[in-house]
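Technical note accompanying the year-one report. For the benefit of new consortium partners, we illustrate the data format agreed upon in the data management plan: each record pairs a sequence with a C-alpha cell string. No post-processing was applied to the example shown here.
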Amino acid sequence: MCSARRRSADHPRRRRARGFSLLDALAGLTFISASLLGLSAASISLTRNSKGADSTSAATALAQQKLEQLRSMPLLAAAGTTGGTFDRSWTVSQKDIPRPGLKTVTVTVAWTDSRSHQTRVASYVRCNAVPCL
C-alpha cells in the first residue's frame, strides 16, 4: 500500500516537469522572429545611412576641389556647370560683393539616390584689382 500512495503523490509532479507546451514554443518562436526582423531592419537602415554619408563626403570634396580651382583662376566666368553622377555648378557674385576687392564664389553639388540631395560651399575670393572687374 505504501507504493500505491507514493505513485499517486508523484504523479502530479511528473506531469508538471514534462516540458513546454505547444503554446509556449509558439510564443518563444514569435518573440525570436520579431527580434530578428527588427535587427535586419536596423542593419538595412545603417547601411543606407552609411552610403548617404559617403555620397555627402564625395560631394563636399568635389565642391571644395572646384572652389580651389576657381580661386586659382581669373574670375571671369559668372556661372558654370559640369555633369556626371554629381551635378556641380558654381556662381561668382557681382563685382565688389560683399565689399570692395572681394567676390563670393559659391559651388553647389547636387545628386540623387533615393531622394535629391545637395551640398554648397562658398568662399570669398580677393580680386586682382580694387574695385573688382
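Partners are asked to follow this layout when depositing records. The chain has a mean pLDDT of 79.
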